[in-house]
UniProtKB/TrEMBL annotation:
<feature type="domain" description="Acyl-CoA dehydrogenase C-terminal">
    <location>
        <begin position="244"/>
        <end position="362"/>
    </location>
</feature>
<dbReference type="InterPro" id="IPR006091">
    <property type="entry name" value="Acyl-CoA_Oxase/DH_mid-dom"/>
</dbReference>
<dbReference type="InterPro" id="IPR009100">
    <property type="entry name" value="AcylCoA_DH/oxidase_NM_dom_sf"/>
</dbReference>
<dbReference type="GO" id="GO:0016491">
    <property type="term" value="F:oxidoreductase activity"/>
</dbReference>
<dbReference type="InterPro" id="IPR013107">
    <property type="entry name" value="Acyl-CoA_DH_C"/>
</dbReference>
<dbReference type="InterPro" id="IPR036250">
    <property type="entry name" value="AcylCo_DH-like_C"/>
</dbReference>
<protein>
    <submittedName>
        <fullName>Acyl-CoA dehydrogenase YdbM</fullName>
        <ecNumber>1.3.99.-</ecNumber>
    </submittedName>
</protein>
<dbReference type="Pfam" id="PF02770">
    <property type="entry name" value="Acyl-CoA_dh_M"/>
</dbReference>
<dbReference type="Pfam" id="PF08028">
    <property type="entry name" value="Acyl-CoA_dh_2"/>
</dbReference>
<dbReference type="InterPro" id="IPR037069">
    <property type="entry name" value="AcylCoA_DH/ox_N_sf"/>
</dbReference>
<feature type="domain" description="Acyl-CoA dehydrogenase/oxidase N-terminal">
    <location>
        <begin position="12"/>
        <end position="98"/>
    </location>
</feature>
<dbReference type="InterPro" id="IPR046373">
    <property type="entry name" value="Acyl-CoA_Oxase/DH_mid-dom_sf"/>
</dbReference>
<keyword id="KW-0285">Flavoprotein</keyword>
<feature type="domain" description="Acyl-CoA oxidase/dehydrogenase middle">
    <location>
        <begin position="130"/>
        <end position="220"/>
    </location>
</feature>
<keyword id="KW-0560">Oxidoreductase</keyword>
<dbReference type="InterPro" id="IPR013786">
    <property type="entry name" value="AcylCoA_DH/ox_N"/>
</dbReference>
<dbReference type="Pfam" id="PF02771">
    <property type="entry name" value="Acyl-CoA_dh_N"/>
</dbReference>
Length: 386
């Protein structure tokens, strides 16, 4: 329990889950550099995740899953990202959304049950494709240009989705589409057919192995039963904490790399390693402040979400704050780690430069910083009327 990453393990069950995630992370870390270099999707990582039972962690126990809490999800995602940020972020969308579907029950029960059984038996995964080039992130409120036209038995969906994480491996996914006849938007569960094409557009600075390509739908038929109501209980969006957990895991890996470097690197003009230098110790202290602050907030917020079920909608400002602090602090930690290591941190043969690129992607995952600040300000201003 002296390792910082273990500070929030509360019992033996969580310790066992953590060790399993760490084993996977160690394996993924050996493959991460090649997938990053190639921008290739790590299919073998997802085979390992499926065989380890990771894909069914948030499936309710009544359907054969583990039914883990949000707190436990955060703990595992942080560890997985320690080994490979791309894999952690990608699988986080799956296990996070399954938790979201379980808590909101916004899907028809039969459709949700079918997904759960398929995840448990076949390793099926799910994600929602909502972003588009013209409308941007759906969190900003843009109207999708993807359209759903009614037929006698269902819908024909046509459009193009961007940032479609996990697209190379999914056989089903959710898309948002505009219905002209209703002047409104709805979600549809789409099964992959010949009318679905993956265009490999994902060539980015960081998170290069998430498979977030464009998905083109050309008159894809969707049965009328696959229109998802979108109704259900408001859970506050707690499942999105898989995102900050991922970036803190990357920051933790950078921190540990810098500590090992500081302990072992001894220039020939020094009698001790650079860890003895006050300037290096100062930088390490700064890393600790950023990490410990962000982790304390993240785990406290996750635990509150687990415990305060009735109060979950009111936790949205705190949930956004946890993401804001975690992603921004993680960037600072990686930057400090690179300052400690020096010019060697820029080498493509070392993982720090990948951490540096990957961690910046957190700024562009929801909720965005501007949204968090707006929600916090709105919550503060609303107190005036109480």
């Amino acid at each position: 329990m002296n390792k910082m990453i273990d500070h929030y393990i509360r019992n033996e069950k969580e310790r066992a889950l953590a060790r399993k995630a760490e084993g996977l992370a160690s394996l993924f870390a050996k493959r991460a550099a090649l997938h990053d270099q190639e921008g290739s999707f790590p299919f073998e990582n997802f085979t390992d995740l499926r065989e380890a039972g990771y894909l069914k962690l948030t499936i309710p126990q009544e359907f054969g899953g583990d039914g883990i809490s949000l707190y436990e999800l955060v703990m595992l995602q942080e560890r997985l990202a320690y080994g490979d940020g791309s894999t952690a972020l990608a699988v986080g969308w799956h296990i996070g959304q399954v938790l979201h579907l379980e808590t909101t029950r916004k899907w028809p029960e039969a459709i949700f049950a079918d997904l759960c059984y398929s995840v448990v038996s076949d390793g099926t995964m799910i994600n929602t494709f909502a972003s588009e080039a013209a409308s941007g992130s759906p969190s900003r409120g843009g109207k999708p240009e993807t359209t759903a036209l009614p037929t006698a038995d269902g819908w024909l969906i046509t459009g193009r989705k961007t940032f479609s994480t996990l697209s190379p491996i999914l056989d089903r996914f959710v898309v948002s589409a505009f219905i002209p006849d209703e002047d409104g938007t709805a979600d549809f569960l789409v099964h992959r057919t010949d009318q679905v094409t993956i265009v490999e557009t994902w060539d980015t600075l960081g998170m290069r192995a998430t498979g977030s390509h464009d998905v083109v739908l050309d008159g894809v038929f969707v049965d009328k039963t696959m229109r998802l109501s979108g109704k259900g209980v408001d859970d506050g969006g707690g499942w999105l904490l898989h995102i900050p957990a991922c970036y803190l895991g990357i920051a933790m890996a950078a921190r540990d790399y810098a500590l090992e470097f500081a302990h072992t690197y001894q220039p020939n003009h020094m009698n001790e390693p650079i860890s003895s230098l006050p300037s290096v110790q100062h930088a390490i202290g700064e890393m600790e402040i950023e990490l410990r602050t962000a982790r304390a907030l993240l785990y406290t917020t996750a635990d509150r979400w687990d415990q305060e079920k009735v109060n979950r909608p009111a936790l949205k400002p705190e949930l956004g704050l946890a993401k804001y602090v975690a992603t921004n602090n993680a960037i600072k930690v990686v930057d400090l780690a690179m300052r400690i290591v020096g010019a060697a941190s820029l080498s493509r043969k070392q993982p720090l430069e990948r951490y540096y690129r990957d961690v910046r992607a957190g700024l562009h995952n929801p909720p965005m910083d501007s949204t968090v600040l707006h929600n916090l300000a709105s919550a503060a201003l609303a107190e005036k009327s109480l």
